[in-house]
Structure formats: structure tokens, C-alpha cells
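Hi there,

I know you've been waiting on this one. I reran it after we fixed the sequence typo, so this is the corrected version. Both the input and the resulting structure follow.
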Amino acid sequence: MPRLFPRPSLLPTILLFLTLTVSCKSPQINEQITITITADGATTEANVQAGATVSQALTQAGIQIESLDKTEPPLYTVLGSGDAILVIRVEEIFETEEVVIPFERQVVRNETLPEGETRLVQAGVNGLEEITYRRILEDKIETSKTVVKSIILKEALPEIVMVGSQASFVPLNIPGTIAYLAGGNAWVMEGSTANRRVIVSTGDLDGRIFTLSPNGEYLVFTRKSNKPADEEINTLWAVRTPNLDPKPVSLQAKNVVHFAAWIPNTNSVAYSTVEPRSAAPGWQANNDLYRVSLTNSGSPRRLLFANSGGVYGWWGMSFAFAPDGRLAYSRPDGIGLVDQDGGYTKPLLEITPLNTHSDWAWIPPIVWGADGNSLYFVSHAPAPAPISGEESPYFDLSALSFSNEAAVSLIDSAGMFAYPSVSPLQYIGREAAFQVAYLQSIFIDQSDSSRYRLIVMDRDGSNSRALFPPPDKNGLEPQTPAWAPGEVEGQSGGFIAVTYQGNLWLIDSGSGKSYQVTGDGLITRLDWK
């Protein structure tokens, strides 16, 4: 039989296969290899079975590995002769320490003190914070330290120092109480413009709400929140103005942006809320209404359920109380009344909403007449074609009469921020009347950015006259003028308070004379009751 031989071309491949097979044979059973292990500050040699992993070698050597410990190379690595293992002991330690929060120093300018004189209003007190750290140690050496929890045990109180900035303005006698916001603090004037004192010195009033009770005995205001803005915007507070050492009281309400006001003939406040949002404008309006009492404890009572608020309702609504307690509402697309017992709205008049093309919406300003028989409001007027109704830059000052249910335009192109304000009832003989103050935009087709001038007219729109500031001076920033309180006998008008260039001014609505009261340039809000 013939003998078979592999083809010559296959011989190199066969020889290579045989060589690899011999060189890659598995370790022999019970074959031992020598390695070194460094752990807990000592290095030792160990004999382990060939093919063992780092984990098996450490177990054989009697070295225990905790859950946080690390090894080089990793535990799953297969060892070879002469390899070295490094065991790194890892510790996790939690430590808590108390850290002092240094108090801040606030300086408040006070025109009742001579220039340069200082007075300590509130001593500063350091706060205390408890911080918990997580420390990681590798072989007793710290490799990381991170904060895992922080708790404020005690809030720091700022040191508040008054610095005199006495101005040379002639003092004026005033009826009632003027409250004003300056530098984040609340002040009052009583009896005379020279009689001034601070009633809230926390430095954190945000100015969104700042309103006196009808008798001037209480001030309701909002304070900035210490929480992130997308969690809480502000909180609602009240303080009794006659107290020599006033103590603000929380009204247990938060996120009050558009409205809070005193309910006539009560010791209660009504307010509306929003929900904070991270996106502009920073909130989503609830368009609700609640009532809370300052004298009777208990939870707030709901007057109006949350609702969409109509067109651009995400921005919010505003409200106004009549002297007899009736309640009107204003929102971007109309005005109406609120049924406070039923908790619903009753529309009175549609208003063309303004398309601002931005993250804000326009709410028509409204105010009741002093006799409660009419509503004064700003209406969105049409513009010539081809400008659409929502794009119109024109706004009229109008009035709605409840006697004949008619709405009429009183002043053309007053401006979107005309902010009408009515005087107390004025008696000339037996006849009762009142006046209306409002702001007139200087640039009527740019009233969103225009400055304004203070105008006074009779309640029917007649006898209109410009009061302040003079034509050659810069105009006023948008605001609601504040009339002096009380009925006026035998006079044609009373004083009106406004802020101008950060200062308080009083204007005689009869003579037109104006008087500067402050000079520090810090005032941003005011009210007069």
C-alpha cells in the first residue's frame, strides 16, 4: 500500500501549531507561584496556586478585604509568578462641626439725624450653621472631604447703623400717617414730615406689597424669601405702626406678587398668590384670593378659587375694594366684580389685551370712586389700520358708572400706566364730590417706557390740570399717587404724595405748589392713610 505524506506546503503550519501547543499548555495541578503582598504597612511573600486571582490570593493569605477597600491590581486579576499586590485600606468618616456665620453691616441714611451722626439701631448677632462632612481616607491619608448636609441653627442678625443725612427741607404738618419704603426698610411719618422713625429694619422688603390699613394703624408688606426663587418668592407680614418697638408678624402667606389690600371696615387682609417657576417671569399666577384676619387666629379663608385668569392669565390679576366692601377685579382681557360669598367672577367689560411680545403682561389699573358708584380704569384703545387691536400703543383713562351701566372714555391716550387714584370725599357746602389724580404719559405712543406727569381732574373728567413735575423737568416713574386722608371741608383739594427721583414730594392739588420732603434718594414705595 502506498504511504501518505503531507504536502510540502503544509509542513510549516503543522510545525508552528505543535510549537504553540507545547508552549501554551495549562499549569500543572498543584503548581505554586510566588507573589508579594503589601497590606497594613507590611510586605510579605506568599506562595499561591498558579492561576489564582488577587481575591483568592488574599483569602489564602488570610487578609480580609472590606467593602470600601481597594487593591492594585483589581480583585479579579489572574496572577503570575513574581506579581505584587497592594491593598489600600479605605475609611469613610462623617464629621459634624458648627460654623459661625458672621453678621453683615447695614447702613441706613436717616434725615432726622444731623449730618455725620451715627446711631446703632440693631446690634449684629452672629449666626450658627451645622455642617456635616464626608471624609475619605486611604491608608490613613485623607483624599477627599465633601459637605453632605448643612443646617442653619441660628440666623445671623445684621448690624444696622443709622447715619445722619439731615436735609434743610421745611417741615410740613400732615394728617394721618405716611409710610414709605427706603433701602429695604419701612418708615413712617406722623403729624409732621419731620417726625420720622423706622418701623421695620430688616432690610429685606421687596416692595411688591406695601399698604397701610385705612386707619394707618397697621402696615402690610412683603419680604424677600431666603429660599431659592423657584421655591418661594416672598412672604407676607404685618406690623403695628404706633408701637415704639414694632415687631413684624407673619401672616402665614407666601408668593404674593400682584395684590394684597385691606378689606374695608375689617381687620382682615385679602391677597392673591402665584406659584414660583424657574422660567420667566418667575411665576405662574393662581388668580385666586384669600382673606386672613390680623386679630383672629385661624387659617386663611378662600374668597376666589384658582383659575386660568383668561388671556395672558399666567401673569396674574389685580383687585380693588369699594368703600362698602364690594370687590372688583382686573385682568389682561377685562374687568368685573367678584362674588365673595360664591367665590366666582362676574365680567363687566371686555378689554383688548396687550400683546407685549415679552415675558410680562399688562393689567388694566382700576380704582373705585370715593362714593362707590363708579370704577375708573385704563382701557386699551384701538389704533389706526393696519395696527391690530392687541398691538395698539394707545391707552385711555375711562370710567364705568353703576348708575347707568355706561362706560365712557374720559382722557384719551393717558398711557398704560396712568394709575388713577381718587381723593377722599370733599364737601363744599352740602355738595359731596371727589377728584381723580392720574399719570399722563409724556410720549403717548411709547407709554410702556415713557415718564409721566401728575394730573388732577374732577370726577367727570373736567377741569383737568397738570401739577407735577414742571414741563422742563424729567417726568415721574409709573406709580399710584397717594392722596392725603380725611374729608376736606371748604377746599378744592388736598395734598398728593408721590416719589420723584427717589424722594418724597407733596403736591397741593389746589394751588399746584410742590414741596420736597426727603433728599436721600432711597424711597421706592409709599402709602398715606
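Quick highlight: The chain has a mean pLDDT of 88.

Best,
R. S.
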